[in-house]
Amino acid sequence: MKLPGVVTAMVLMLGAAHAAEPLKVVCIGDSITQGRKGVGKHVPTLSYRYPLWKKFVDANVAVQYVGAQKTGFEGSPEYPDHNGKKFVNDNEGYWGWTTEGVSGKLKETSKTWKADLAIVMLGTNDKDKEKSLEPTLKAMAEIVATLRANNPKMIVVIGQPFQEWKPFPELSKAYAELAAKLNTAESPVLTVATSTGWVSKPDLDGTCTVDWVHPNAVGDEKLASAFFELLKPVLKIK
User: Fold this and answer.
1) φ, ψ of residue 129 in degrees (nearest 5)
2) d(Cα 90, Cα 110) in Å, to the nearest integer?
3) End-to-end CA distance of the chain
């Protein structure tokens, strides 16, 4: 079966990128990306990055996480080894930061690493999104531009928000529209729906969060699976 044009381009680019060395992946976002050690009453959160990394390991795909951050919020939680490999906690997650704030930070930190693939999850902390989505969308477009300055062939995957209340469904749609505008054959920009089957309320069976917003292990696994399923044809994983 012939893959769609964009996916075919991604296969060629990523295949070339990690044929001789690990695929370099930068995960960008706020607390959902950074995770936290968990101090006092706060529950440790590992971030989707850890179960996604385990999926790469299980699929025998060599990846290297990159980023200026080397820890979670207030320190790193425990990340057990997996199949004899150690998790490297490099990331670009900034606890409590807005899309605009992370965009500004990346202009500085992206000079310290090189990546082939960027996974971006942002928008939760943007205070103006109830009035207008434009500041968030402008900042997201700036992030894509910064990533392309880092690597003109950067592949960007934007995770759509999983929160079910306004304005997150609207932001999900707007991200998809923005990605379609920014997408090119040389540097694909794609979105991933993460809200399917999501349960935000912490006291419900099957909940995906520890506090309505920050994912628990179930939520992290759902996010990791959503990203991995998109990447499977790219990485030629059955």
Assistant:
1) -70, -25
2) 13
3) 13
- Number of structural domains in the chain: 1
18, pLDDT greater than 70: no
Question: What's the average model confidence in pLDDT over 51-58?
Answer: 98
Q: Which two tokens stand for residue 57?
A: 């390991």
Task: Report the CATH number that the domain containing residue 64 is assigned in CATH.
Answer: 3.40.50.1110
Place of tokens 């044809």: 233
* Domain ranges, residue 53: 5-235
Rounded CA-CA distance 84/43 in Å is 27
Task: Report the Cα 167 to chain-centroid distance in Å.
Answer: 20
Claim: this prediction has a pTM higher than 0.90: yes
Binned at pLDDT 50, 70 and 90, residue 26 comes out as: very high
Q: Average pLDDT of the chain?
A: 93
Parallel, antiparallel, or unpaired: how do β-strands 92-93 and 189-192 relate?
unpaired
Whole-number Å distance between alpha carbons of 64 and 68: 13
List all residues 6 or more positions away from 177 whose beta carbon is below 8 Å from its beta carbon.
none
**What is the SS3 assignment for 154-186?**
CEEEEECCCCCCCCHHHHHHHHHHHHHHHCCCC
Higher pLDDT: 237 or 36? It is 36
